[in-house]
Amino acid sequence: MSAQIIDGKAIAAEIRSELAKQVAELAAQGKTPGLDVILVGEDPASKVYVRNKERTSKEIGINSTVHRLPEETTREELLGLIEKLNNDPTVHGILVQLPLPGHLDEEEVINTISPEKDVDGFHPINAGKLLIGDDDAFVACTPAGVLELVKRTGVPIQGKNVVVVGRSNIVGKPAAVLFLREHATVTVCHSRTQDLPAECRRADILIAAVGRPEMIKKEWIKPGAIVIDVGINRVDGKLVGDVDYENVKEVAGYITPVPGGVGPMTIAMLLRATVQAAARS
Ligand code: NDP
Question: Is 97 part of the annotated catalytic residue set?
């Protein structure tokens, strides 16, 4: 038996078309959602991400403005721009593309974004709200996309064993909190976990967010498990996930491919947050 493939690309397209309708309704009320993205410097991957965010925003009718700033942008210039956007009522979402050049303090920059416009969900106020169960929180887009993919399998989450491999602030930790909120029993693994294969074998739902190509093996998978691969690794010019996809799909019940799984969902969740921010404004 081979796993059902979770088609993130198709699900993201469905979500975008639902959002396009909401954007049209908001526009009719004079509240066209606005998303401003700030890109500092010339990081090639960041440039691609920002271009995709701009294009998909525009496709569904969101007003997207990209502020492309030079590498040598000063702290004062960047924080000044964020303050200006915080105070602009036509801007509902602000996103600063990371990583920033070394002379800029990412934490300070994120803390400057108004929590009401922090559609990336990285501001400590939003991270804290998520932790205490406040539904108003903007949730980090990648873990929000992971949850949406699992929900759309139709398999109930409540009471299941969810194992998250990785504990970063942008993926692993918020993913763990999101699944806890859905009443799963959650285990978080990391580089000091003693017996990772044994932990993974207990997972009804396994989320891999490590950044190590094809690390998760077939023998680590409980038959029938849902396997969500967040990893994006470039190997010989090809993108691969953290899961040994070809072999794991023989045992898993559901699995996401890389590319075409979690990746497209991240942008869809960003657009959803921007529409929510505009609706609340
Ligand atoms: P980080 O590097 O911030 O975190 C990686 C985590 O994996 C850490 O918690 C680390 O543990 C853990 N880890 C590293 N090695 C091992 C190991 N051998 N065994 C167990 N755990 C280990 O990465 P991110 O969370 O930012 O990203 C993870 C992956 O997801 C990357 O491939 C990234 O490219 C991808 N990604 C994809 C996105 C998408 O849209 N699809 C968006 C964001 C990220 P420790 O804390 O102990 O160091």
Answer: yes
